[in-house]
Design brief:
By secondary structure, this protein is α+β, with helices and mostly antiparallel strands. The chain is built from 5 helices and 4 strands.
């Protein structure tokens, strides 16, 4: 729809209304076109709107990035050194190999509850190494427990007690195992 110029009465009325409105966000005020002794002619207005050169296409908004997962809580330097060097000694370990997802989740939840009762601080959970693609002839997907364990820990009733989850040292299983470090 083509725009039209406002009459002086309409412009005054609009300015009165605009002074009563509170903007949702701060914007720079637009420059007011100063009028010469009368209203500009429609020809001069159309001439002012005419764009010279190539008009760029309309911008499409950037896609909204998915929410980032919560950052991994940082342990102090002594913990980091123990993890890197393999000197961290787990209080207990659990092997989830051969279990279906429901059984593995229940066993992990039970381990976290027992750790709270016993006062264990470092848990070693063996999940198995994730496989990027199934082998030829392999019907089921491998590494399902490893793929789900992060969600299980976030939704766990003991999630508030978990200080950090880290990949285990090769001595304890490397890619196929995780350390779960609990708060005191």
């Amino acid at each position: 729809m083509p725009s039209r110029l406002l009459s002086p009465e309409e412009r005054d009325l609009w300015q009165k209304l605009a002074r009563t409105v509170t903007p949702l966000r701060r914007t720079r005020p637009k420059a007011v076109i100063a009028e010469a002794e009368g209203a500009p002619s429609p020809e001069s207005f159309a001439k002012a709107l005419k764009v010279k050169g190539r008009v760029p296409p309309e911008r499409t908004p950037a896609p909204i990035a998915p929410a980032r997962p919560a950052p991994v809580p940082v342990l102090d330097g002594s913990w980091e050194k123990k993890i890197r060097s393999g000197q961290l000694a787990p209080d207990i370990s659990i092997d989830l190999h051969g279990l279906n997802l429901a059984a593995a989740q229940m066993r992990l939840e039970r381990l976290l509850g027992d750790a709270a009762v016993q006062g264990w601080r470092v848990l070693l959970v063996v999940t198995g190494k994730p496989r990027p693609a199934p082998l030829p002839g392999e019907a089921r997907k491998r590494g399902a427990i490893r793929a789900e364990i992060g969600d299980w820990l976030v939704r766990s009733a003991h999630a508030h007690r978990i200080a950090s989850v880290r990949q285990a040292h090769p001595r304890h299983g490397g890619d196929g195992a995780l350390y779960i470090i609990l708060r005191r």
